[in-house]
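User: Predict the structure for this protein chain, please.
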Amino acid sequence: MQQTIDGLRLAYDDAGSGDALVLLHGFPLDRTIWDVQFAALAQRCRVIRVDARGSGESECGAGPALMETLAGDLYGLLDALDVGRAIVAGHSMGGYIALAFFRMYAERVAGLALIASRAGADPPERRAERDALIAAIEARGIDPVVERYVRAFAGASPQFADRIRTVVGRQSAVGAIAQIIGMKERVGSEDVLEDILVPATIVAGASDASIPIELLARTAAAIADCEFVRLAGVGHLPMLEAPEATTAALERLIARCTLSAAADPRSVRATRA
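Assistant: Here is the predicted structure, written as structure tokens:
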């Protein structure tokens, strides 16, 4: 399926009925990373998964893919699909988008899930790594991204190396650069954690080499109504490495959210300019 939002073509899938759940993928992936969860959760609610601009089948657009820009794309898509409020679940970069969406449009968020995703901005050394990756992409195309992320993602679960290589390898080099810049320039979201008064879930892989599990536990503790799910032996891709447990965590979040009721006034009050 496709929708044109502010002149940009976005690709998405929309299945099921009732209350809405949005699934946002991480970098450098696309919406197919949610295959298991999309099929399972569409049996109990309406599930929308979308390729972020520059990923999968979505167009890239001009300039960097700032997290606020990607959140604005989601806002436009939800309007086009006549979705007033939704649970927003994001993996890695998708979690950055979800937090930006909450900061900008808290009244549209009925629940929030961060899957292997941190609230903070990039530290200086991470920004330098992103600059180096951009230079490598400019020189060699998408291959450096494939090499880096197959190695990083498959470290804990090498059986997924071929799947990761296929998904990453079909991404656009231009889109990857735009998203890397967007991630590098993102602001931290620690200041909005105390304003998240809707049900929330954080899923953390205990073997995730990129995010210390203690950091995600502290993030969960800063949110009023947050379930912290620790998955033993799982790295940075819980939706692939522990699909049933990830699906179950999202099912519990759906059960905690009442989307059809009037907007929670606490959520509206949390909206920031």
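The two ends are 32 Å apart (CA to CA).
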